[in-house]
Specification:
By secondary structure, the chain is an alpha/beta fold. The protein folds into two domains: about 130 residues, no CATH class; about 300 residues, von Willebrand factor, type A domain (Rossmann fold). The chain contains ten helices and eleven strands. The strands form three sheets. A six-stranded mixed sheet has the order 8-5-4-9-10-11, sandwiched between helices. Strands 1-2-3 form a three-stranded antiparallel sheet, covered by helices on one side. A two-stranded antiparallel ribbon has the order 6-7. Helix 5 links the parallel strand 4 and strand 5. Helix 2 packs across helix 10 and helix 7 packs parallel to helix 8. The longest helix is centred in the first third of the chain and has 46 residues. It is elongated.
C-alpha cells in the first residue's frame, strides 16, 4: 500500500505500532531519576560536612571559652587546634577555615565550606556552600582542689620522683602560664600513717605537753580523733573535739634521745600540709619538699584533704559547700593499702593500744578500710568530686577500695607505671580545667 496516497491510514498504523516504546520512555525517565539520585548523594555529603563543621566549631568555641588566657593570638591557636582536630579536612575532602570573633565575654566562631557536586554538576550546580556558627559565653567558675598524696615508705626515691613530676604537669595544665589565679585554689596533703598539720596549728588539746618532746619539739603531726570524728570535717570547739599531738614514745621500736633522722618523737611524720592557696609556686615548693617514710592510713590523709576544702575550722580557706561559683575536688593517690601493727606508730598510735577497737591486725586493717569508705561517702555527700589513683598497686583490695571511693568509675585510675601516672595526672588536670567552664 502506498502510504503517501493514504496519509490517514499511515498515521493510524504508526500510532498503533508499540515496538521500541518502552526503551524510549525509560530513556526519558532515566534523566530525572539520575538527577534525583545525584542530588541525594550530593546533599547527603553536604549535610555530613555541615554536621562536622558544626561539631568542630562547637568544640573550638568551648576550648577558647574554657581558656583563662586573654591573649588573642593564643586563643586563636587554641581555636584552630581544636577545630582541626575535630574537622578532618583531608578525610572529608572539603577544606574549611573558621573565623573567630571575641567580644568581651563572648566567643563567636563562623565557618563555611564549599562542597563540590558530582551528578548535580550535570545541570550546572557545581558546588554547595554550607556554613555553621556558634556562640559561647566565657564564664570561668572557681575551683578548689586538694592533692592528697601518699608519702609512705613504699614510695621510696624513684616513685616519689615520678609522683612529683606528674604533679607538676597537673599544675601546669591548671595554671597554664599564670603564677596566680584567684579562681583557682590548690592544697597539698602529704600523708603516711598520720598527717602533719603544721606547728602553727592552734587546735591541740590543752593537755599538750611540749616538754615531752625534749630535746626537740613537736613536729606538727596529730592523732586521729575518737567518736567517729576521724570521719568528718566537724570543727574543733572544745577538748573533746580537738586533736592530740602525735608523739612516738621512747620505746624499743624507737629509742631516743638522741634524736636523728630515723629516731625521735616525730618519726614517720611527713612534711606539713599546705592549705588552699592561689599561688602556683607555693604549691610547687610543697610538692618538691615531700619525702617517703612510714606506713599507710589512707583514711587519715583523705579526711584531712576534706578538711582543707571545708569552710569550717581548723582551715577556713574553702568556700561554702553551696557556693555555686566554685567546684571542689580531691585527687587521692596511693601506692599501697592500709596497714597498722604493734611496731609501727601512726594516727591511731600502736595497734596494741586498741584505738581502733581491736588489737588484731587483720581486723584493724579492715576497720581502716571501712573508715576509708565512710570518709569517701561523707565527702561525696557534700558535693566534692573525688578522683582516685593507684600507683603500682598489686592489691585487689586496695584497687577496689579506691575504685569505690571515686565519684564514679571513670574517676578511678590504675597506674601500673610512671608513664601511666603522668598520663593520669594530665587527664585529671584537663578534666578539671573543663569543669571550670562547664559546670
Amino acid at each position: 500500500m502506498d502510504l503517501t496516497s493514504h496519509p490517514a491510514e499511515a498515521a493510524r498504523r504508526f500510532a498503533a505500532d508499540r515496538r521500541g516504546a518502552v526503551a524510549i520512555v525509560f530513556a526519558l525517565a532515566l534523566i530525572p531519576l539520575l538527577l534525583a539520585g545525584g542530588a541525594a548523594i550530593d546533599l547527603g555529603r553536604a549535610y555530613l560536612v555541615k554536621s562536622r563543621l558544626g561539631y568542630a566549631i562547637d568544640a573550638a568555641a568551648l576550648a577558647v571559652g574554657s581558656s583563662t588566657s586573654t591573649d588573642e593570638a593564643e586563643l586563636e591557636e587554641v581555636m584552630l587546634a581544636f577545630f582541626e582536630a575535630n574537622y578532618p579536612a583531608s578525610e572529608l575532602g572539603v577544606p574549611a577555615t573558621p573565623v573567630m570573633q571575641l567580644n568581651d565575654s563572648e566567643v563567636s566562631i563562623y565557618a563555611t565550606a564549599d562542597v563540590t557536586t558530582t551528578l548535580m554538576n550535570i545541570v550546572g550546580i557545581h558546588e554547595l556552600t554550607v556554613s555553621a556558627e556558634t556562640l559561647v559565653i566565657r564564664e570561668t567558675k572557681g575551683l578548689e582542689v586538694a592533692l592528697v598524696l601518699d608519702n609512705t615508705g613504699s614510695m621510696g626515691t624513684t616513685k616519689m620522683k615520678n609522683l612529683k613530676e606528674a604533679a607538676h604537669i597537673f599544675l601546669d595544665i591548671l595554671y597554664g602560664n599564670e603564677e596566680e589565679n584567684d579562681l583557682l585554689k590548690i592544697a597539698v596533703v602529704p600523708f603516711a600513717a598520720a598527717v602533719n598539720v603544721g606547728t602553727g596549728f592552734g587546735f591541740l588539746k590543752t593537755t599538750f605537753n611540749a616538754g615531752a618532746y625534749s630535746p626537740t619539739t613537736w613536729g606538727g603531726c596529730v592523732l586521729a580523733r575518737g567518736n567517729t570524728r576521724d570521719r568528718t570535717d566537724e570543727a574543733p570547739i572544745n577538748n573533746t573535739t580537738k586533736w592530740d599531738a602525735y608523739l612516738w614514745p621512747n620505746d624499743s621500736n624507737n629509742r631516743w634521745p638522741p634524736v636523728n633522722s630515723s629516731k625521735g618523737p616525730n618519726e614517720d611524720c611527713p612534711v606539713s600540709l599546705l592549705p588552699l592557696t592561689t599561688t602556683k609556686s607555693t604549691v610547687e615548693k610543697k610538692i618538691d619538699s615531700m619525702f617517703s617514710d612510714g606506713p599507710t592510713h589512707i583514711n587519715v590523709g583523705l579526711v584531712w584533704g576534706w578538711r582543707v576544702l571545708s569552710p569550717t575550722e581548723p582551715f577556713t580557706q574553702g568556700v561554702a559547700y553551696d557556693n555555686e561559683d566554685f567546684n571542689k575536688a580531691i585527687v587521692l593517690m596511693t601506692d599501697g593499702e592500709n596497714f597498722i601493727s604493734s611496731s609501727t606508730y601512726g594516727a591511731y598510735g600502736y595497734l596494741s593500744q586498741n584505738r581502733l577497737g581491736t588489737t588484731n591486725s587483720n581486723t584493724a586493717i579492715n576497720t581502716l578500710n571501712s573508715r576509708t569508705t565512710t570518709v569517701c561517702n561523707n565527702i561525696k555527700a557534700e558535693g566534692i568530686i573525688i578522683y582516685t589513683i593507684t600507683f603500682e598497686v598489686d592489691s585487689t583490695t586496695a584497687r577496689n577500695l579506691m575504685r569505690g571511693c571515686a565519684s564514679d568509675p571513670s574517676k578511678y585510675f590504675d597506674s601500673p607505671d610512671a608513664a601511666t601516672l603522668t598520663q593520669t595526672f594530665r587527664a585529671i588536670g584537663k578534666e578539671l580545667s573543663n569543669l571550670r567552664i562547664g559546670g
